[in-house]
Each structure stands twice: as structure tokens, then as C-alpha cells.
Design brief:
This protein is α/β, with parallel strands linked by helices. The protein contains twelve helices and eight strands. Keywords: Lyase, Metal-binding.
């Protein structure tokens, strides 16, 4: 397993910027890496990307120096295992609402004694053909993997104080659109009540000493979030493409 550069930066209080992408094409991941982004998050929730395609995407990330992460579609330990074994270095889980769900998520990501992740001869551990012994790899993997539950609904906000006490969590990523919808605002997250709720969530997570993440559509938004202590800033690949295209099209007047 490679060193998780994104986790190292976050542990040092440094911001990271990346993209959530629903493409199965490894070239997209490779281009994002060479562009200088910190992480490439495979969208395993809102896309047809399968675990069979993940290994090539991860290889492209490794070649271009970008950290491969994934948003999984469900809190299924076998599904999480397949992504991790392919070499993904962190998992973002949508819709976490209760302590029981979060504890199950941590256990799925981590090897014993922290969790219950099963061991196999897989590319994440160099098929045990590298320099690490099994014991060394297990300890290293538990240190390097990122655990990032998402706060996406009102129940999670109500339970946040309890969620923040669960061991093994690196941080929380706020999903503003789904959170707004769960609060009854179906047209987006621009409402004052949603903004106040998100602001309160950010402050609680920071106070607990954990990483705060959320979405940023522009560089200015990312800078404003970082100034507030949000270190994990996430855009979509389609959002980045649209922004770049809009800027480019200004050339024709």
C-alpha cells in the first residue's frame, strides 16, 4: 500500500482539493492527477462504475500522483472490501445517520483489531510480494485509510454529537444538496436555514478535532471554505469541465 498523501496533508492541517467523478475511464483520473488535484474520488453511488473497473482507475491515479478515493453506494462491508483491495485509499459513505451505522462503517474499512476487514492477497498489499510482512501491512493500512462519513440528512445533524465520538473516523463531509432536501428545501441549499445548519455542523466537527469537508464549485468558494477551517474541498468533474468551458467560450465574445 502506498502512503496516503491526502491523509498526511490533512493530519498536518493542510487543505486538499479534489474531484468526484462518475467516469469509468482511467484517462479521466490520469488527467486529473496531472492537473495537480490532490484526490480523485470515484463515484460508486451515482454512476455505473463497478468494482471490476476500479483497479485500472486506481492504477491511473498512481501513475499521475493523485490519491484514489471512492464514494460507495452502501454500507456493505464486502463492497467496501473490494474497493479497498483494489487500492483505493479512503472511503466516503453517504447517508450516515446513526452511531450504529458509523461504527459498522469503520469496522468494514479497518483490519483487526480496529475493525473486521478481511485479508486477501490483493494489489493493495502487493499480493504480499512486496517488502512488508502481513502484520506490517495491516498496521500500515489501518493508519493510511481515510474514513469519511457524509452528513446528508437532518437525522445525522440531530445525532452529530454522538457521531463525533465514534473512534476511527477521520472527518465528516457535508452534502449540502441532500441535506437541504431532507430539511424540505427541494430547490437547493441557498436558504438561510440550511446555511445556518451547515455552519453549526462545521463548527462542531472542527471543535471535535476532525476534518471538515464539503463541496466547492469554484476556487473562490474553496478559498472561503478553507478560511473557515474546511480542509477537504470537493468539486465534480462535470462542474470543473463546465467552469473551464464557460471561461474558454468567452473567447468568441
Amino acid at each position: 500500500m502506498k502512503q496516503n498523501i491526502v491523509k498526511t496533508r490533512l493530519n498536518n492541517g493542510q487543505p486538499v482539493l479534489g474531484v468526484l467523478a462518475n467516469s469509468a475511464d482511467p484517462t479521466i483520473a490520469e488527467l486529473c492527477g496531472f492537473s495537480g488535484l490532490d484526490f480523485y474520488m470515484i463515484d460508486g453511488e451515482h454512476s455505473p462504475v463497478t468494482t471490476a473497473q476500479v483497479q485500472d482507475i486506481v492504477r491511473a491515479c498512481e501513475v499521475s500522483g493523485i490519491t484514489p478515493l471512492v464514494r460507495v453506494r452502501s454500507n456493505d462491508p464486502k463492497l467496501i472490501l473490494q474497493f479497498l483491495d483494489a487500492g483505493v485509499m479512503g472511503i466516503m459513505l453517504p447517508g450516515v445517520s446513526t452511531v450504529a451505522e458509523l461504527e459498522a462503517f469503520v469496522k468494514a474499512v479497518k483490519y483487526p483489531p480496529v475493525g473486521t476487514r478481511g485479508f486477501g492477497f490483493v494489489r493493495a498489499n502487493d499480493y504480499l510480494m512486496g517488502t512488508m510482512s502481513q502484520g506490517e501491512y495491516v498496521e500500515f493500512a489501518n493508519e493510511q485509510t481515510l474514513v469519511l462519513p457524509q452528513i446528508e440528512n437532518k437525522e445525522a445533524v440531530d445525532n452529530l454529537d454522538q457521531l463525533l465520538t465514534v473512534e476511527g473516523v477521520d472527518g465528516f463531509v457535508i452534502g449540502p444538496r441532500d441535506l437541504a432536501m431532507s430539511m424540505g428545501y427541494y430547490d437547493g441549499s441557498a436558504h438561510d436555514e440550511v446555511k445556518r445548519t451547515i455552519g453549526g455542523v462545521v463548527e462542531k466537527i472542527k471543535k471535535a478535532g476532525l476534518v471538515v469537508g464539503t463541496t466547492a464549485a469554484t476556487g473562490d468558494q474553496a478559498r472561503a471554505l478553507i478560511d473557515r477551517g474546511v480542509l477537504f474541498c470537493l468539486n465534480t468533474f462535470s462542474g470543473l469541465l463546465k467552469s473551464a468551458t464557460t471561461d474558454f467560450m468567452k473567447g468568441r465574445g
